[in-house]
């Protein structure tokens, strides 16, 4: 019984911590993945005009810097079709699956 209580407490803390991180960043990574695959991948796939770009292409710090300063410097209109929340969602997805994250991903 004691082990079950400890397990429940650990799981509760893990869920709380994960929720706090998501809230701190302000984005929904699942929606961000959907938006990236739907809107960004066409130009950022192998052979696309934007060059191959996946979450693994940058570290978390590099993704943050991109969204804070660069934001598609060569084609700034690319972000105009997104709401502020959509941009946060995409940023959260890319950050969560960056090269140095706990869950690196290519966005297949």
Account of the protein in words:
This protein is mainly α. The chain has a domain of 69 residues. Helix content is 56%, strand content 0%. Helix 2 packs across helix 4 and helix 3 packs antiparallel against helix 4. The chain is globular. The N and C termini lie far apart (42 Å).
Largest sheet: none
Strand content: under 5%
The rounded distance between the terminal residues' Cα atoms is 42 Å
Question: What is the mean predicted local confidence, pLDDT?
Answer: 80
Total strands: the figure is 0
Number of contiguous helices: 4
- The SS-based structural class is mainly alpha
Please tell me how large the radius of gyration is.
16 Å
Brief characterization of the structure:
This protein is mainly alpha-helical and 108 residues long. The protein has helices at residues 2-25, 29-40, 60-70, 84-96.
Topology of this structure?
Blueprint: H1 2-25, H2 29-40, H3 60-70, H4 84-96
Helix pairs in contact: 2-4, 3-4
List keywords for this structure.
globular, mainly alpha, 108 residues, 4 helices
């Amino acid at each position: 019984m004691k082990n079950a209580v400890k397990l429940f407490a650990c799981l509760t803390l893990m869920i709380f911590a994960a929720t706090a991180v998501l809230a701190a960043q302000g984005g929904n990574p699942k929606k961000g993945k959907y938006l990236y695959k739907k809107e960004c991948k066409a130009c950022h796939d192998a052979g696309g005009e934007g060059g191959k770009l996946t979450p693994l292409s940058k570290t978390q710090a590099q993704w943050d810097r991109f969204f804070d300063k660069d934001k598609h410097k060569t084609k700034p209109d690319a972000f105009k079709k997104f709401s502020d929340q959509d941009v946060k969602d995409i940023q959260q997805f890319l950050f969560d699956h960056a090269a140095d994250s706990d869950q690196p991903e290519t966005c297949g």
